[in-house]
């Protein structure tokens, strides 16, 4: 929606203070009794987030509960704020998996590049913003915490409209 | 009860007066003076003179003192006037005033000139019943004493015109 | 005449104590609710919802606010004069709460013990008492500003003293026509005059007085558009900048109870007080202890008139808030201009007009009654029309916009750079061309 700017005509000649005040009071009275209000009563009502809205992360898991991450190291490489710490490991079948996977949500700038670069669609930015904590340490999300997140993930582009036109 | 209240307000009035003279800051002095005026108004009420009490507060405490306060705050008076109060002339003036006040007090408190009960309360009550609180003051003022009243008005007008003239000349 | 019976001294004491406690409680609770109402109305005007979380419709919000204010830390600014700093809120709140005591709020109540007048104290000076005490309220503000040792607070205090003096004069003068028509200063008599004496609410026969009184009352209670003493955008919050917690809250309570009293006063003086319009059944006045002139007092009538009074007072309170959230603040010079050069002469002239009208009506022998009121109404409408016609043009109050832009006088430094009358472009001094 385009924002309309109302250009008020400046008064010329000798305007009247009284009539202008009365007109102003009529205007405020109309707004006073107008039942349409703009307040979003937050905990009860919430804004509908855009599908591309980027919030705190979420790690996708396999059906058996393992993280989908293959510890390829792309996300810590591309992360512009350097907030992902990854220590890769390898099991006896040669499958790579993350031993440590931590995201410092305080450092994160929610650019979504980690999700874009992930070859196995494991790490995602998510549609969540209600993440207040009492300590700073709690904002470093470890692997278990990332896997436990259940909020919807962000669609970085709309499949129907990939160029966002 | 009334006597007790009278003593309380009399003490407050004198205390306010002393505070006004002894105060170090002009604003504090002024506020003490307001206390005096307020206590005087309370004493007037104890004497059944409600209208005088109201006027005392409206005019003195409410208007004149606020104006003084405004001027004092605007001018930001310092403490450089102290030396004036120490001169010989001030001692003479002070002693003469103290003597006059002492003489009047002694007259009032001794029996020959004492303020005895002359039925004042009954007169006031009757006046309040026949007219109302304002009428009791207004009738004598506009009927019996209309000439002094108008003369005072002219005097005040002349003073006001003079003040405006003096202030205008500076501009 | 109805003889109900006077109260015995004991019953008088008991009833007075009950009235004092009841009125004090009602005023305090109303003031608390007014803070909520103010926030709700401001929100509605701005298309918001306002506080609605604490309790149903947010009705418990004032309690939450009060609790918060009690629990907050008290601060005392460095080098403030401690005595006056602590005294100021008290000086400010006491007159504000006391003034309601002379306002009659309902018709007299007949009880088994005698007739109880529905006014806390019907003192003979009536409204003069209110004017006297509200004029003392300014000391609280000035003291707060002066003792805070803060330049913004100080400026707020100074503005308060200047503004209150200016508007108290027109407030008092706008009341004089009322006194002249009623012939008394006690508020029950004012109500009686509007019920039977004239038979018209004074908003009609004394319209200009009403107008001037409303404006002066806005200024006296420091509400927008006259809130120079606190002027948030210029003086932080003016005189109570340095106050916190309950001491701040006391200034707040004082402001709102002043507003409540002013609204009640406007309703009593100009809208008939507790009178119910077009009904003779409530027209009564206490002429002596226990003796009522006019209709017979009844408990139901007392309740109905109380409701009527509440509705009228509420109307003015809403008007206060409505104006506050509509009209921008005056500039300081505009406030002074309006007070001294418009309100004061107009109020004086109106006193003269009404006095002459009363004199003429008395000398031609028109009986004091409805006809009397109608003639006064005609005179007032004519005078008000002339006044509004004159004030309506910008000769009197003008905004900043319509004034012709001033040609900036060149400064000496700039003049030195001018060679032979040719103005040179000086950085930072864009020259405004003469019209």
Q: What does the radius of gyration of chain A come to?
A: 25 Å
Which class of secondary structure composition applies to the elements of chain A? alpha+beta
Provide the helix percentage of chain C.
Answer: 55-70%
Oligomeric state as shown: heterotrimer
Identify the strand order in the major beta sheet of chain C.
1-5-4
Topology of chain C as a string of helices (H) and strands (E): EHHHEEHHHHHHEEHHHH
| Estimated helix fraction of chain A | 10-25%
Rg of chain C, rounded, reads 25 Å
The pair of chains with the biggest contact is:
B-C, 28 and 33 residues
Mean pLDDT of chain C: 81
Proportion of residues in β-strands of chain A: 15-25%
- The neighbouring-strand order within the major sheet of chain A is 2-3-5
Q: Which stretches of chain A are low in confidence, meaning pLDDT under 50 for 5 or more residues running?
A: none
Shape assignment of chain A:
elongated
Main β-sheet description of chain C = 3 strands, antiparallel
Tell me the distance between the termini of chain A: 15 Å
Structural class of chain C: mainly alpha
Q: Sheet bearing the most strands of chain A, described? A: 3 strands, antiparallel
CA-CA gap between termini of chain C: 75 Å
What does this structure look like?
The complex is a heterotrimer of chains A (165), B (171) and C (435). Chain A has a three-stranded antiparallel beta sheet. In chain A, strands 1-4 form a two-stranded antiparallel ribbon. With 165 residues, chain A is α+β, with helices and mostly antiparallel strands. Chain A is elongated, with a radius of gyration of 25 Å. Chain A contains four helices and five strands. Chain A is 20% helix and 16% strand. Chain B has three domains: 1-79, NADH-ubiquinone/plastoquinone oxidoreductase chain 6, subunit NuoJ (Four Helix Bundle (Hemerythrin (Met), subunit A)); 80-111; 121-171. Chain B is 81% helix and 0% strand. Chain B has helices at 2-22, 26-46, 50-75, 88-109, 120-130, 133-144, 146-170. The mean pLDDT of chain B is 80. With 435 residues, chain C is mainly alpha-helical. Chain C has one domain. In chain C, the strands form two sheets. Chain C has a three-stranded antiparallel beta sheet. A two-stranded antiparallel sheet of chain C has the order 2-3. In chain C, α2 crosses α9 and α11 (332-363) packs antiparallel against α12. The longest helix of chain C has 37 residues, at 9-45. Chain C is globular and about 65 Å long. The interface between B and C is medium-sized, with 28 and 33 residues.
């Amino acid at each position: 929606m385009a924002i309309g700017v109302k250009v008020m005509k400046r008064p010329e000649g000798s305007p009247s203070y009284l009539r202008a005040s009365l007109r102003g009071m009529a205007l405020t009275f109309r707004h006073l009794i107008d039942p349409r209000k703009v307040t979003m009563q937050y905990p009860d009502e919430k804004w509908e987030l855009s599908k591309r809205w980027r919030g705190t992360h979420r790690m996708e898991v396999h059906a058996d509960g393992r993280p989908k991450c293959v510890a390829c190291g792309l996300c810590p490489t591309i992360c512009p704020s350097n907030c992902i710490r990854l220590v890769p490991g390898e099991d006896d079948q040669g499958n790579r998996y993350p031993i440590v996977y931590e995201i410092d949500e305080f450092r994160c700038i929610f650019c979504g590049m980690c999700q874009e670069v992930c070859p196995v669609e494991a790490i995602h930015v998510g549609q969540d913003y209600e993440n207040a904590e009492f300590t700073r340490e709690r904002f470093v999300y470890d692997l278990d915490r990332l896997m436990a997140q259940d909020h919807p993930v962000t669609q970085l582009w709309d499949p129907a409209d990939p160029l966002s036109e | 009860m009334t006597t007790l209240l009278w003593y309380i307000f009399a003490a407050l009035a004198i205390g306010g007066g002393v505070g006004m003279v002894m105060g170090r800051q002009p604003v504090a002095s002024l506020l003490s003076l307001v206390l005096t005026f307020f206590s005087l108004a309370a004493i007037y009420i104890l004497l059944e003179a409600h209208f005088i009490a109201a006027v005392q507060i409206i005019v003195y405490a409410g208007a004149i003192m606020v104006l003084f306060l405004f001027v004092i705050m605007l001018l930001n008076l310092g403490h450089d006037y102290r030396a004036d109060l120490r001169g010989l002339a001030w001692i003479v003036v002070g002693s003469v005033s103290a003597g006059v006040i002492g003489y009047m007090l002694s007259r009032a408190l001794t029996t020959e000139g004492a303020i005895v009960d002359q039925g004042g309360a009954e007169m006031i009550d009757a006046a309040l019943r026949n007219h109302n609180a304002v009428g009791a003051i207004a009738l004598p003022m506009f009927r019996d004493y209309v000439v002094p009243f108008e003369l005072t008005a002219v005097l005040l007008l002349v003073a006001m015109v003079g003040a405006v003239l003096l202030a205008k000349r500076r501009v | 005449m109805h003889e109900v019976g006077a109260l015995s001294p004991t019953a008088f004491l008991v009833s007075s104590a009950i009235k004092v406690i009841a009125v004090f409680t009602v005023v305090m609770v109303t003031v608390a609710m007014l803070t909520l109402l103010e926030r709700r109305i401001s929100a509605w005007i701005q298309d918001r919802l306002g506080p609605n979380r604490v309790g149903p419709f947010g009705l418990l919000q004032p309690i939450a606010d009060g609790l918060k204010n009690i629990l907050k830390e008290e601060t005392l600014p460095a080098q403030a004069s401690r005595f006056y700093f602590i005294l100021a809120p008290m000086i400010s709140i006491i007159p504000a709460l006391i003034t309601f005591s002379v306002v009659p709020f309902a018709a007299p109540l007949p009880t088994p013990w005698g007739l109880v007048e529905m006014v806390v104290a019907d003192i003979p000076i009536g409204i003069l008492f209110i004017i006297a005490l509200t004029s003392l309220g300014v000391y609280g503000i000035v003291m707060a500003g002066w003792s805070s040792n803060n330049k913004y607070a100080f400026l707020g205090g100074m503005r308060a003293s200047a503004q209150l003096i200016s508007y108290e004069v027109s407030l008092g003068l706008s009341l004089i026509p009322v006194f002249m028509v009623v012939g008394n200063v006690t508020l029950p008599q004012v109500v009686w005059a509007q019920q039977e004496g004239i038979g018209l609410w004074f908003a009609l026969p004394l319209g200009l007085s009403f107008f001037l009184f409303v404006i002066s009352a806005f200024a006296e209670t420091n509400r927008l558009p006259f809130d120079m003493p606190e002027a948030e955008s210029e003086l932080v919050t003016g005189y109570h900048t340095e106050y916190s917690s309950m001491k701040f809250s006391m200034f707040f309570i004082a402001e709102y109870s002043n507003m409540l009293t002013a609204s009640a006063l406007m309703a009593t003086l100009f809208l008939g007080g507790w009178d119910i319009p077009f009904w003779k059944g409530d027209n009564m006045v206490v002429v002596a202890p226990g003796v009522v002139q006019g209709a017979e007092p009844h408990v139901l009538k007392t309740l109905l008139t109380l409701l009527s009074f509440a509705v009228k007072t509420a109307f003015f309170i809403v008007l206060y808030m409505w104006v506050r959230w509509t009209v921008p603040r005056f500039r300081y010079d505009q406030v002074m201009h309006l007070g001294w050069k418009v309100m004061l002469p107009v109020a004086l002239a109106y006193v003269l007009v009404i006095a002459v009208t009363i004199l003429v009506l008395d000398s031609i022998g028109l009986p004091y009654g409805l006809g009397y009121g109608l003639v006064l109404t005609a005179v007032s409408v004519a005078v008000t029309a002339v006044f509004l016609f004159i004030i309506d043009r910008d000769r009197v109050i003008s905004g900043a916009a319509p004034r012709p832009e001033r040609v900036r006088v060149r400064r000496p430094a700039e003049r030195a750079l001018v060679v032979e009358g040719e103005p040179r472009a000086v950085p930072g001094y864009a020259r405004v061309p003469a019209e």
